[in-house]
Design a protein that fits this description.
With 108 residues, the protein is mainly alpha-helical. It has a domain at 17-63. The chain has helices at 17-24, 28-36, 53-63, 101-107; strands at residues 43-45, 48-50. A two-stranded antiparallel sheet has the order 1-2. It is rod-shaped and about 90 Å long. The termini are far apart. 6% of the residues are buried.
Length: 108
Amino acid sequence: MAPAPGSRVTNPLLLTEAEAAAALRLSARTLRKARAEGQLRYVLIGRAVRYTMADLESFVENLRQVQPPCPTPAPRTIGTASPARRAPGAVIVPFHQRSGRARARERL
């Protein structure tokens, strides 16, 4: 039995581009690009492009990715500069041995 004229079909067999975009929460342009690149199957009836829910689900499954676990960073040594960052001939003076402004004034 066909639906009455003017009534809405709750589960249509084919979706328009706008309906498919809304279902995937994407723009219609994204669907057109995916269709042009061969990533998204579609049904062509005359010049009308339609999508099935199975095609949309397949599209999503093909795009699914798994993020590899992040590598754990190497432990850092605090307070020591790596030899590559030190200037040649540089000497690291511990903070408690620095006299700060007093020595700076003596140099002037």
